[in-house]
Amino acid sequence: MIGIILCGGQSLRMGRDKGLIMSGKKVWAEVVREKFVDLSIPSVLSINCLQKVNYLPYFDENDLVVDNPNINIQGPVLGLLSTHLKFPTEDLFVLACDMISMNALVLRKLYGEYQISKPSAIAFKGDRVEPMCAIYSSQGLDNILRAHQRGALSKNSMTNVLDQLDATHISILDEWRLFFENYNNAEDGKESKS
Predict the structure, then answer these.
(1) pLDDT tens per residue across span 63-107
(2) Looking at the domain assignment, is residue 39 inside a domain?
(3) Which domain covers residue 166, as residue numbers?
(4) What is the pTM of this model?
């Protein structure tokens, strides 16, 4: 299994690259990456081609997975499938770069449930499904890639990918809700948050 921190979005609402916002002395992508270190899971960062030069001061080039130009799809699904093509036998544990409040206990719960049942995908669900904190199996991602190549992927969203994979869901406990905050505006997640 490999952790993947999704950093490749355009961050239009935030107005700047969320993965590179400072939290103390670390950028958000580093804060999120440390959550995988706590789980002893190696991780990579999914970025688009324009971001690479800005990420190299913080990360080794081998830790960056640049969106594959041969995959004709947009959004975070592009990062997911690009990473799958680079590591085709690995299951992918996904976290968005702006989920800086995520708790290790919650991640261990997801990882543990996945290890028990080995579903094609598993994600948390509260009022809605949380596709940016989920595990996608390598076999499931193969199926999604083939569906995309056939033009059979009806929507290019992470939620649709989970639907297509008939994902298993874990209920979000009330006390966990704050861990699922993702920050989309400059006022959210001030640089002091971690």
Answers:
(1) 999 999 999 998 999 999 999 999 999 999 999 999 999 999 999
(2) yes
(3) 2-180
(4) 0.91
What is the number of domains present in the chain? 1
Q: Give me the sheet containing 2-6, strands edge to edge.
A: 64-66, 43-47, 2-6, 92-96, 129-136, 121-125, 168-171
Q: Which CATH number characterizes residue 112's domain?
A: 3.90.550.10
Q: Residue 66: which of 58, 55, 157 has the closest Cα?
A: 55
Instruction: Classify residue 20: in a domain, yes or no.
Output: yes
Helices (H), 13-135: 28-38, 52-55, 76-86, 104-117
Residue-wise pLDDT for 115-124, tens only, equals 999 999 999 9
Residue 49 lies in a domain: yes
Helices and strands in the chain: count of H runs, count of E runs? 6, 9
Tokens 């190696």 -> residue: 42
